[in-house]
Amino acid sequence: MTDAPGPLEPLGSTDRPILDRPVFERLTMAHRRELKLHCYRMMGSLHEADDLVQETFLRAWRGRAQFDGRGSPRGWLYTIATNACLNAIKARATAHRILEEPARPPTEGRAAAGPAAELSWLEPYPDTELPDLVDGEPGPDARYETSEAIRLAFVAAIQLLPPRQRAALLLCDVLGWSAQETAQLLGGSTASVNSALQRARATLAKRYPTGRPVQRSQPSRDESVLLERYIRAWQAANLDGFIELLRDGATYHMPPWRDWYQGRPAIHDFFRTVWGNFAGYLPVATRANGQPAVAIYARRHQEPEWRAQSLHVIEPADGGIASLTVYVGPLGPDLFAAFGLPPVWPGSNA
């Protein structure tokens, strides 16, 4: 198997074990972030990705004698990681995570469905954990730009694929591996991989007219202005100012609640029912899935501390917000640690 995801510098001379402990530690450091991102795309879970990267390195260390140095260490690690993900998916109750329940219509008015702890919800991914996008460019056969393949909507879309189709699409269309190399990893023939790819692409085409998400540009001045306006609206508890930032057909999801909303009027009507639940909001800018994001701390009436309340992931489009995913309690506050944020904002009176 060639080093399909990209070149790797030689790890050592051939007159000593290629994967002795110092070399193995350097290998894990070099590829930890990209393998974690690969596991996240496969699983839809930040926490599962952490566990699977650790499992990958443990398996690699225990099986290092099987690596003879003739192939790519990077490709070898991707093989272990992908198979670990497939095994983990097979062992859990559901094969994919969701941002919304399939076929559930948008809600109008007050949220009534409530949080669904029994469902597996897609988690956001901190930009601070992304690999270096310059060194991690996909191979020549990739169909997706690196930046679009980390978007929350893309990860949600590929979660609809059966696990082996998901793996084939990620390895071929995202990382740029050949069908032959992917077949060696997954087991089976090149023809079976090409068939899996065709089915996976057909599924994505049903969700996206072009078969792929709308490609977004790198963060721009307009995106920065949008984020600043969003933060100011929440700081001032200005509901109308917040709604003005939404595009006409914007969608709003709030995992782990089943309810979701579409369009400015519906989103406004919902927020009007909950906006006064807190005495104030303290927004903190961050980034998730290559998109602008905001962590909201809230202060309850007659309570002094600002506590983690929700994590907002923004999908910008044409100067406004096309989609807003807000992770609320109990899921939202539990995500703050992964973004390097405390449960209580420093300086508040605990």
From TrEMBL:
InterPro entries: NTF2-like_dom_sf, RNA_pol_sigma-70-like, RNA_pol_sigma-70_dom, RNA_pol_sigma-G_actinobac, RNA_pol_sigma70_r2, RNA_pol_sigma70_r4_t2, RNA_pol_sigma_r2, RNA_pol_sigma_r3/r4-like. Keywords: Sigma factor, Transcription, Transcription regulation. Gene3D superfamilies: 1.10.1740.10, 3.10.450.50, Winged helix-like DNA-binding domain superfamily/Winged helix DNA-binding domain. Transmembrane segments: none annotated. Residues 228-322 form the SnoaL-like domain. Residues 152-204 form the RNA polymerase sigma factor 70 region 4 type domain. Residues 29-92 form the RNA polymerase sigma-70 region domain. The keyword Transcription applies. Belongs to the sigma-70 factor family. ECF subfamily. Interacts transiently with the RNA polymerase catalytic core formed by RpoA, RpoB, RpoC and RpoZ (2 alpha, 1 beta, 1 beta' and 1 omega subunit) to form the RNA polymerase holoenzyme that can initiate transcription. This is Sigma-70 family RNA polymerase sigma factor.
